Amino acid sequence: MMDWTDRHCRSFHRILTRHTWLYTEMVTTGALLHGDVARHLAFTPAEAPVALQLGGSEPADLARSAKLGEQWGYDEINLNCGCPSERVQRGAFGACLMNEPQLVADGVKAMRDAVSIPVTVKHRIGVDAVEDYAYVRDFVGTVADAGCEVFIVHARNAILKGLSPKENREIPPLKYEYAYQLKRDFPHLEISINGGIKTLDEVEEHLKHVDGVMLGREAYHNPYVLAAVDSRFYGAHTPVLSREEAEASLIDYARQEVARGVFLGGITRHALGLYRGEAGARGWRRVLSDSRRLATGDMTIFDEARTHLREAAEFIE
């Protein structure tokens, strides 16, 4: 979720769900060890629980970065072994690491030795033309031997050449049965599934076979899908927020951030799908995408955006 799940995105998602585990965008070890740590790691306690997702391959660098994550208050360190982008490949990490399971195991062990919070791994089921289930089974087995107990399985192959990362989110086909088989083969491990999941009904079906479900693009482009998660899967008794209530909380958050000098568009861009599928959503989204208006920090932009929702509702009536 590089360039997506920043602290403003997570703060918005936390408005919708109190219990869902949230993940940062992938942060490279180099960015932490040689860059602005606060810019990459600062977050608010209200976002918790939050996992820091790291990109890297050198065990010593991963251990130092994991330690920083723990010091900054993160609840989990997640090693990305699934991103197929060329930028990540040049750094010899992401999905490339699936071809070096012992190196991943060494990195996991180094991080576990450095921190007391959980260290988890997100990965694919294969790389390029490798279709054999044994490939991912052996990867998980090797890394589990280093002490990793939680694996998040993006259930499609990573294609390192010939497809863009965007295309690789749709191609090749998903193989959910590989994740299910991992759970059967490693019943003592926590196996979560990721890839192409859009509805809470689908989530419920997957939970018959695995321990957890990760939503990526759907949670970003249709964030209101998160609103019913707490009551449906965590036993929460609080009423499900309406879209309007979620927007009101977003406005309160945005007002505080703008007062601190934050660009309003850096907040609204994460909420553009809030009214997805609702009458007037396109007009609401168009107003909240106006960079010139957003640059002024004028909060009345939300009032103008809502006129499109009201007018659409009145037209339907």
From TrEMBL:
Database matches in HAMAP family: DusA_subfam (MF_02041)
Cross-referenced SUPFAM superfamilies: FMN-linked oxidoreductases (SSF51395)
Sections of the chain in a coiled coil: none
Domain of life: Bacteria
Taxonomic placement: Bacteria, Pseudomonadati, Pseudomonadota, Betaproteobacteria, Burkholderiales
MF annotations from Gene Ontology: flavin adenine dinucleotide binding; FMN binding; tRNA binding; tRNA-dihydrouridine20 synthase activity; tRNA-dihydrouridine20a synthase activity
Enzymatic reactions: 5,6-dihydrouridine(20a) in tRNA + NADP(+) = uridine(20a) in tRNA + NADPH + H(+); 5,6-dihydrouridine(20a) in tRNA + NAD(+) = uridine(20a) in tRNA + NADH + H(+); 5,6-dihydrouridine(20) in tRNA + NADP(+) = uridine(20) in tRNA + NADPH + H(+); 5,6-dihydrouridine(20) in tRNA + NAD(+) = uridine(20) in tRNA + NADH + H(+)
Annotated FMN binding sites: 53, 122, 154, 194-196, 216-217
Active site: 83
EC number(s) stated in the UniProt entry for this protein: 1.3.1.91
InterPro entries: Aldolase_TIM, DUS-like_FMN-bd, DusA, tRNA_hU_synthase_CS
Domain DUS-like FMN-binding: 1-294
PANTHER family: FMN-LINKED OXIDOREDUCTASES SUPERFAMILY PROTEIN
Gene: dusA
Primary role: Catalyzes the synthesis of 5,6-dihydrouridine (D), a modified base found in the D-loop of most tRNAs, via the reduction of the C5-C6 double bond in target uridines. Specifically modifies U20 and U20a in tRNAs.
Keywords: Flavoprotein, FMN, NADP, Oxidoreductase, RNA-binding, tRNA processing, tRNA-binding
Protein name: tRNA-dihydrouridine(20/20a) synthase
Family per record: Belongs to the Dus family. DusA subfamily.
Site feature: Interacts with tRNA: 80, 166, 169, 282, 285
Cofactor(s) listed in the protein's UniProt record: FMN
Source organism per UniProt: Caballeronia sordidicola
